[in-house]
Amino acid sequence: MSTTFEEQNEQIPVPVETVPASASEEINQSAADDVNVTIENSEDASVATQGTDATAATSTTEPAIVQPKVVLPSLKDLPSLSSNSAFANSKVSWGPNMKPQPVPVSNFSTPSLSSSSLSPSPVSAAKRMRSRNIQETFTLDLRSQLSITKPELSRIVQNVKQTYNVSVESTLSKNSRTFLISGIAENVQSAKRDLVKKLTRPIDDSMTVPARCRAAIIGAGGKTIREISDQFEVRINLARENNPDSYDEDLNDFTVDVHLHGDFESVNLAKRKIEEIVKEETKTLNIRVPVEDAKIAQFVNLSSLSIPDDVKCVFYQDSAEVAISGPREDVKSTKVQVQDFLNQLSSTLTEEKVKIPTKFQFLIDAKQLKEEFNVIVTFPTDPTDELVSFVGQADKVKEAIEFARSNSKKFVVDSLDISKSHSKNLVHAKNLALYFIKYNVLKPIEDAYPDVKIVLPAVSTLKDTPNVTIQLSSKSDSSNEIKSARKELISFVNSITPLETLTISDLDYELFHKSIHHILLATEDEVPYVQVGDYFHNNDDSIVLFSKASDEDFKPSAEETMERLEKINLNLDPLRTKQKNMSTKTFELPAEIQDDLLAGQDNVTLKLILDEVSHEEGNIQIRLHTPDANHISIRGDEKAVKIVHKALNSIVENPSKKSKLTVEIPNNTVARLVGTKGANLNQIREKFNCQIDVPNHDAKDNDKTVEVTLTGLEYNLTQAKKYIVAESKKWADIITKELIVPQKLHRNLIGANGVYRNRLQDKYNVFINFPRTSDIVTIRGPSRGVKQAYEELSALLEFERENGYKMVINVPAEHVPRVIGKNGSTINDIRADFGVEMDFLQKNTDLKVKETGEVELEITGTRSAIKEAAKKVESIVSEASDFITESLEVDRKYHRTIVGAGGNTLRTIINKAGGEDIRNKSIDIPNANAESNVITIQGPKSFVESVKRQINKIVEDGENSITKELEIPNERQGALVGPGGMVRRQLETEFNIIMNVPNKNETGPVTLTGLPDNIAKAEKKIMTEIIRDNFDREIQVPAALQEFVSERGAFTQKLRLEEFVHVRHGNATRRANRLNRHNLVIPVEKVRPTEEEKKQQFKVTIEEVGEPRIDGEEGEIPWRLTYEPIDFSEILTEDNELKADTPVKIDEAKKAETLDRVVKQIEDRIAKAATSTFVGYVWCADPRKFNKLVGPGGSNIKKIRDEADVVIDVPKRSDKVKDIVYVRGSKEGVEKAQELIIENMKN
């Protein structure tokens, strides 16, 4: 160690050793030469200038030859430089009792130690001179020194002095030897090291460093550690394994030992070098602060904290942790702030519970209360619990509750009981609710009506509920949207009939639910499924398959749907075979042992047994206290039953929970067994419900094993032992492999958000470290995984080297947003199209960018791809340079015309201007309620000019426009609008006009605005084609009865052929056609015969199903009747040529009579619906006989219809069900029709 000198107030006896005259003279001369030297060695302490004689300037010998003590002169006797008389009174502060003294600040060349005893000197006013020379002292403990003779010591000192050109002095005390070395700073340090090395014994020392610094200390291929070892001539051993129980929370790391061997000076220097590396590696810190109070997690907002700029502080709500990273000291201070903030937040929160009926709880908008009041609302999970929790600051909680109460009064609530659908099929309704919940299939409806909230029933209430009610709510001003959303919801529910689902219940849920999930997940995109047991904890065995809506134009038939579902069902056949081959056995086990060791849903032993069976890919079902209290029932495959039987035998034979078992593991795996803060050990204890004792051990001896003692139930211990042995093999197989990767390629190999690294780590169960300041990438993990990860990472590195060409181009700062595009769309497209990486190297706010006006864009990839990508960027910049913005003042009355119906006119303007392929062009037209009349156009100059010309033309035409009113009856005005405004848009687009039609509950004329010629053409079309009363009678038919009344189109065809009356439906034509083609529901399984019944050739079935109404269809369908007789005698001339425009003379009396008769028939069919509550089915073994049933031109089937007064549907060749005739009517009529049908086909 180094020390300093200080003036002594009294004389000190100092042991002085004799040295040869030459050595003594040299030492004295050296001391005299250095009298005027300013001490500059700042590492230990400053040294005052020494004056001494040949006797006081000591040399080195052993303590055995110490001479009689002499009295040294006092420092008070030290003369000034101009006098020699004062030397008689000077003394040297030297020896084992010396104390450090600071160097006085002075302008003198020689510091004055006692100004009162020295007379002024001319030199004292001289300016201080700096010197390259220093003095350094250090002391060696005699016990650490080598045993050498005085001549050997003298030779060593002399050699050091000559080698390094320094002066060496020493003094000896009882237990130590102190040296003073003077000379040039570099030489002094070298001489000191050499002297210490030659005089002392080697020492062993150790230090601990963070484990993550291991790679930096070793360096690439061991380069760094070799340099330190060679430079200081020490042997360094860095431990491979972490020190157990050495986890440091602030470092978030374990520590490892570094062992050093060499002389103590070299060891100290090597330690300093290692400490510098550690300091550099740990200058930044990453820590996590857990938010232990769960109720405050959602209130954490760190924006109010004074966090240093170079510290990143983020709260992760999922893991309830605050992550802090940055410079070490700043991170530590930030951690204190965060902890204080969390404690304060925890103390200020309060919770209040309010009783709110379950059916109204959904009206509370928890998200809105969080945003406006920072209050968290928690709804009860138990449907019988009506207490809603509000958590936040006390005053805010009260405000939030009051707001929720008042806000809920603004809502309109409606409900839809879907259990009334599909003939009140409650089970189907529950399955639908689970399907909606699992797959969120109602989202399209929610998106279409954002102001409507749709709430499905809670799963916990579905099991025992007598109905399945969906709640809909919206604010009062959006009540119409509830009706629309409700209609769509009804339509959607109706579209999923029971025939489009398949319920499977022949597989045991408890045994096979995991296997079922695994199998059905493969086809989930095509056929979604719901496993009811997942939701109802009563081991419900039902599995429901749903037919997903097809993208095809036409919906598949019921038979096609069922065929697809059955195909998926067949995938479960292997499980059925397995279930069929299962056996059941009983095992005797006292009830008290069952309750003690196996009972409970979370019982560890029972879980271990099931895990052991699952590991062997077996299936098992264990029933405690079955068939009686002292027995256990086991059901499963043979292998699984054997495993469970063996486990139960073990429990019976060794029921004690204090059994002991030992397991030996390699010494180097103990730390991993224990884990961070004992976390892994605690997990194993909980998993196997046992005590684990790990003895103290020498972590450095990797060749030994450690005996770990397990205490608990013997079966659990056996499983724990297997687990620990298997894991220890993995831990012992851990290796580290290094790959040299240039730092510039680290980012590419890591991937965006670490995607490439994470994939390799997960795939091969390894850890890959990319250091910030080194090219050495380390891969650590199981040897096999490390090897595979190394190969794959090497291949990726080779690829990056081949494709890692870079080009930097300059992009004008003003056009950077254009190159990036909205949400990065443009630059991402370029990346994808050309397979390159693109990164802007500066931000627009950087000083260099402000000076140059350009941002550097780096493109990485192959040479050809870079070239193409650069061209694309240049084209975007070129286009952006031509980008202009112009404003056009246009009277607001023309804005609607410019936009056009549905935006058609505006799209036409853009297309004509060539805007289809232009990015970022825009035409900004003020909203209807805005006061501005300025239209803003952005885009290339040619585009903007073209748009301006077209808009000016529209305005010019508008100046010449006129407005005309048309008197259209109110009941006919709807025809001008059409479904969804379709007719109005077509008219406005076709004739370039604006048409205003009064709203539904308003009266007034229809106005047309546009050029005179266009208005005339539009008026003609309206009057002659759209609203002309071109029918003779109109009758309204309930939409729900449309299919029955029309006889699926057969009745309207009969009216046309027999009565010459055409039926049209106006704007409801599409709906009427859809209802006419409504799918018939035929219970095929019930209707078709068994194998025995097939011998009879025919089978008749009849059932009562209710009125022939289509669920969910509201309103009416207009039937517009037109009498159009045909005079066949006048159709052809004598030359058999068709007369072109020969009008048919209509007998008005006959017309009226015919129309009255037809109206009466329609009304009768509507009335008949009330009695047509029966459906009959006639199955025929030979569908070819249906041709005979129909008869020529349908004569036979028509006769049966009329005679039995029923609706009959004979299957067509294109139908999926080709062997069943459908009959609908009264019971008597259906029975009579069935008899006639069979009789007709038999004859």
From TrEMBL:
Compartment(s): Cytoplasm
Matches recorded under Gene3D superfamilies: K Homology domain, type 1 (3.30.1370.10)
GO MF annotation: an example: G-protein alpha-subunit binding
Region forming the signal peptide: none
Keyword terms: Cytoplasm, Repeat, RNA-binding
Cited CDD domains: KH-I_ScSCP160_rpt4 (cd22449)
Residue ranges of the region described as Disordered: 41-60, 103-123
Record's GO cellular component terms: chromosome, telomeric region; endoplasmic reticulum membrane
Predominant location category: cytoplasm
Low complexity composition bias: residue spans: 104-123
One GO term of the biological process aspect: chemotropism
Annotated K Homology domain residues: 201-279, 657-729, 733-798, 803-878, 882-956, 960-1027, 1173-1242
One Pfam assignment: KH_1
Domain of life: Eukaryota
Bias (Polar residues): 47-60
Annotated SUPFAM superfamilies: Eukaryotic type KH-domain (KH-domain type I)
Matching InterPro entries: KH_dom, KH_dom_type_1, KH_dom_type_1_sf, KH_Vigilin_N, SCP160-like_KH
Protein name per its UniProtKB record: K Homology domain-containing protein
The organism of origin for this protein: Naumovozyma dairenensis (strain ATCC 10597 / BCRC 20456 / CBS 421 / NBRC 0211 / NRRL Y-12639) (Saccharomyces dairenensis)
Gene behind the chain: NDAI0G05590
